[in-house]
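One record is kept unedited as follows:
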Amino acid sequence: MSHTVFPPAGGVIARRIVPPALLLLLAGGLATAFSQRPWAPRSGVVQPVEFSHRVHAGVDAIPCQYCHAYARRSRNAGVPPMERCIGCHRQVPGAGLTVPARQPWTETRQLPFQVAWNRVYALPDFVRFNHRPHVRVGVACQECHGPVETMDRIEPVAEIDMGFCITCHTQRGASRDCSVCHY
């Protein structure tokens, strides 16, 4: 009597499923690696109003928190209202005013004293970041944003990602509990 030997069923399934699964995994990894990440810092961002951090924070030595006052008391650093700019520029001879502040208001134009600034830095929706605790423990703005006092236009100096944050938290002995930064 002859016995027919059949290969184990698991081997056939493995040969049919594993190669396509590996191919899909590889394709997904490549797509992720080469996809745009909307939270990555953007270089060359042009703002609607020409503003030099080098002049204001560097030459004039205006502290970051004078303009970004929300950093010490809220989640976002915020951008200053145009009234803050006008308050100084009205008193500085020859400093001039920004174009939106000189235009009369009509309902078809942008409201006076409001500028729609373009983001350079952004974080993914699943990250919870709050400037306030960082400011309160003395983390200088430059530690994340670089030497802004030397920049006419803000340019990112580092990708502020999980590795960047974990490195800093480790060096400072700050919490590395996931729930501190993630929802």
Observations:
- The chain has nine helices and no strands.
- Residues 53-79+117-181 form one domain.
